[in-house]
Amino acid sequence: MEILPYSKDRQEEIMMVEKFYAEKYPFAESFDVLDLKNPLLNGRKNILLALQSGKVVGFSKFLSRQNFSSKFYHHIWLDIKTVPFNGAHEVMKKLFQSSIRPIRESTKSYFRAAGTRICVKLHESETERSRFFEELGFLPWIDFYYMERDLELPVMPVKLPESLLVKVWKPKKEPEILKYLSAEQSCFPDSPLEYRYLNYFFQRPDWKSQGAVIAVFDGKENLVASLMVYPSSNGVYYTEEVFVVNRWRGKGVARALMSEALIYLQNRQARSALLSVTSDRTTALKIYRECGYVHTFTRKVLVLPI
Fold first, then answer.
1. Neighbours of 70 (CB within 10 A)
2. What whole-number distance in Å separates Cα of residue 82 and Cα of residue 112?
3. Is 233 part of a structural domain of the chain?
4. pLDDT interval class at 234 (50, 70, 90)
């Protein structure tokens, strides 16, 4: 068995491994070929391939999420998958061992944070992968709750405070993206987005054709709340990256923002809206339930400090 770096010539084989795994575990986190352009993959240098008899039988890839505060951790989101066969455990082991060095290299120049954690996200059906990572010393951290809102059901309009204005916004230029990032990073200091990722995301065809930010501004054009909508599949949209800046929390802005976004999607004949929220964000979870979202499934996160 060989462990080799990513090669574009092997892209079809990588996606075939992903397809096999998704068919066996439909609730596992998946990706498509466009995701291979994600800049957090470091020009695909963060992807390793396992070859046996000249064919790709598994891969590892990781996204490095840098933190800019000494209070929080850098997070490395690792994904290791194989085709189903008897030697899968050994392939995963080799891929994990081979990934440690590039993971350390990728974070060497990062801001000095509280530390670095390798994270894996798993559905309960993925028993083999769960057992594999637990044997390596990975421990439970948080859960991701996945929720859905049926847009065939009515949405009650909720008014914003009078001094605020909602807009459908598509940030394109650097000052607009930086305005968005400044507000977003103030709300999520533990997992901030980066400019390079957001710039990539806004260039994706699905975003360009059907994505938008439902944004709330104050009288001075400061961004005070935001929610992204973008397509998942036919008639289904994501409603993600929801935030309200500290000054405006507890004033009904989040509920009004959710209402605006859901009505916006209904007007586009969307059938349902999806979102995910971590188990530690209890206030957000309560608001989503009040807005009609129902829990559909959970993925747990296991972590290993390095």
1. 10
2. 34
3. yes
4. confident
Residue 306 covered by a domain: no
Q: How far is the C-alpha of 99 from the C-alpha of 46, rounded, in Å? A: 8
| pLDDT of residue 302 exceeding 90 | yes
Task: Give the number of other Cβ atoms within 10 Å of residue 254's Cβ.
Answer: 24
- Per the structure, the complete domain to which residue 100 belongs is given by 2-137
Per-residue pLDDT reduced to its tens digit, 40-60: 999 999 999 999 999 999 999
Residues 39 and 127 in one domain: yes
Mark out the alpha helices in the chain (DSSP H runs).
11-24, 88-106, 127-135, 174-187, 195-201, 205-210, 253-267, 282-290
Give the count of domains, the chain.
2
* CA atoms of 57 and 50, how far apart (whole Å): 6
Characterize 130-144 residue by residue with b for buried, 16 or more Cβ atoms within 10 angstroms of its Cβ, and e for exposed.
bebbeeeebeebbeb
Q: Are 120 and 300 in contact (CB under 8 A)?
A: no
Give the C-alpha separation, 213 to 228, whole Å. Answer: 5
Contact 225, 216 (CB under 8 A): yes
Q: What is the CATH number of the domain that holds 164?
A: 3.40.630.30
Task: Please say if the pLDDT value at position 69 is more than 80.
Answer: no
Rounded Cα–Cα distance for residues 198 and 222 (Å): 19
Q: What is the pTM of this model?
A: 0.94
Tens of pLDDT, residue by residue over 119-172, are 999 999 999 999 999 999 999 999 999 999 999 999 999 999 999 999 999 999
CA-CA distance, 48 to 82, in Å (whole number)? 12
Q: Could you tell me if 61 and 172 lie in one domain? A: no
In this structure, are 183 and 285 located in the same domain? yes
DSSP state of 8: G
Residues 173 and 90 placed together within one structural domain of the fold: no
Report the pLDDT value the prediction gives residue 67, as an integer from 0 to 100.
Answer: 82
